[in-house]
Amino acid sequence: MIYEFVSVFFSMFRFVFFVSIFLAAAFISSAQPSSMASLEEKLKNVQPDSQRINLLNELSLAYLTNKPKRSFDLATQAFLLSKNIKFIAGETVALNRLGEYEFRMSNYANAVSFATQSLKLAEQQRDSINIAYAYRLLGLINTLGLKQYDLALQYQLSALEIFRKENNPTRLAALYGNISWIYASMEKNLDEASAMARKGMYLADSLSNKQLLSYNLNSLALICFQQNKLDSSLLYIDKSIESGEAAGDMGVVVYNRTIKGDILYKKKDYKLAIEEFEKANNDAQLISMAGMVKNAAFGLAKCYASIGSFDKAYKNHLLATKLTDSLQNWETVQKVMLIRLEFEEEKQKEKITQLEEENARSKKERFIFLTTGVILIAALIAVVILVIINNSQRAQANLLLIEKNGEIASQNEQLKEVNHIKDKLFSIIGHDLRSPLNSLKAMLGMVVRKEVSSEEFIQFAPQLQQHVVGVSETLENLLLWSRSQMEGWTNNPASLNLFKI
Q: Distance (Å, rounded) from C-alpha 149 to C-alpha 155?
């Protein structure tokens, strides 16, 4: 019965610790301003641009631990301004800040929504650092709010892989504390968890960061508690309390006192255990954290029951049960809201899928239309080119035809001239050659037939000689003209005085 009570108690103290871990993670995720007042003063004089958005996000982080409502207002301003000027990097950080605020307010469904939006934007921009911050926040939500430790571990390990590449010791020290605590809570890979917590402790010590040192010492204490190494667990928890007090982190101090009380209870040192639980209870009420009050009440109930003070045990048990019911109801409401968000997201995804399909169909139709248009235009251009080529060829053919027609016309003229010359030659032959020859032929025939006497022939001889000379001159002229028409014949005309001739 007692060990069952111890198990219940151990499962309950997670709430307090992870709030403390988150405070550290938020604290280290960005450089704290040296003076919030100076940042506020800068904010008054900065134009509504990316520089103003970065200041708003920085101030939102600075106010997150002590003025969460102011932090929320600043992150909202940064988000709206980023949307207005389309500054994706500022919008990504602002969404993460809003998620951190909702997580602190235990509004886990809203926190998941903001963290998921921030993660999507960071992935679109391939912004590894903001991807890691989104993973870290989702890891915290799934650990504290949704109790999904396997999923939480995946997120935290993903963030660790990114921060290892960046080699930032502060971020690594915080994540080592987160992951080792999850392993301890799951009672899984305790040796690996111990090695991580020690790495985180050494890093925090080298950085002189008491807050991170406190968290990693706390993880070591839990691991030793799981391994039933109570003396080592008590030693680490005392060091964690000391570091937490030095850092001024009341949350982790109160949580450590509940763990110390549980260790002392297991060692059966009930008196000291009651003292630690009472301190934890009083401090938890001062900082108004119901989860811490619940853990302290459970611790007091089991201690008082062990020493036989059943009235006090019953009173504290009732208080713890009431707070447990209240917290469980709240967690149930958050899970219902988260399921509703997931359902709405599924519907949104279906709608997006439908829109994407319609868009794909529209793109396909546009592609077909454009392709058809291009083909038609190409065909039209081809036809135009063919027409132009055909017209050009026809024009060239027409020019050639005109040239040929010109040549034919020239040849016709030449033929006409040749025919004229031929006619002229025939006329010469028919008149200037045939007539004298006919006369000579007739006279010689008469001589042969002895129709003309020698005296008469002698009388006609001069006239016959004149006809022969004329025929000879005509033949000479024809031969001369014939030579002049031959290729290569040259003619050198000269001026003559016809009177002298």
A: 10
CB 291 within 8 A of CB 319: no
Distances from the Cα of 213 to the Cα of 91, 128, 216, 246, angstroms: 32, 26, 5, 10
Give dist(CA 468, CA 463) in Å, integer. 9
d(CA 470, CA 77): 133
Give me 70's structure tokens: 């102011």
The answer to whether 184 touches 190, Cβ cutoff 8 Å, is yes
pLDDT for res 323? 66
SS3 501: coil
The one-letter amino acid at 347? K
Q: How far apart are CA 357 and CA 351, in angstroms?
A: 10
Contacts of 204 (CB under 8 A, 6+ apart): 173, 210, 211, 212, 213, 215, 216
pLDDT digits (tens, 9 = 90+) for 199-233: 888 988 888 888 888 888 888 888 888 888 888 88
| Distant-in-sequence, close-in-space partners of 177: CB < 8 Å, separation ≥ 6 | 21, 24, 197, 200, 212, 215, 216, 218, 219
Structure tokens at 22: 């988150």
Q: How far apart are CA 433 and CA 122, in angstroms?
A: 121
Rg (CA), the chain: 59
Band (pLDDT 50/70/90 cuts) for residue 456 is: confident
Cα pseudo-dihedral 14, 17, 23, 25, rounded to 10: -80
Distance CA 324, CA 229 (A): 29
Give the Cβ contact number of residue 50 at 10 Å. Answer: 15
Q: How many helices (H) and strands (E) does the chain have?
A: 19, 0
DSSP-assigned letters across all residues of 284-327 = HHHTT-HHHHHHHHHHHHHHHHHTT-HHHHHHHHHHHHHHHHHH
User: pLDDT confidence of 15, banded at 50, 70, 90?
Assistant: very low
Contacts 24+ apart (CB under 8 A), 158-167: 158/132, 159/132, 159/133, 159/135, 162/128, 162/129, 162/131, 162/132, 162/135, 163/132, 165/128, 166/128, 166/129
- Residue 290's pLDDT band, with cuts at 50, 70 and 90, is low
pLDDT band for 250, please (50, 70, 90 cuts). confident
Q: With b meaning 16 or more CB within 10 Å and e meaning fewer, what string describes 167-194?
A: ebbbbbbbbbbbbbbbbbbbeebbeebb
pLDDT digits (tens, 9 = 90+) for 412-446: 887 787 777 777 777 777 677 777 877 778 878 88
Q: Which amino acid appears at position 384 of this protein?
A: V
Q: Which residues contact 288 (CB under 8 A, 6 or more apart)?
A: none
Supply the DSSP symbol for 486. S
Residues 6+ apart with CB under 8 A from 29: 61, 133, 136, 171
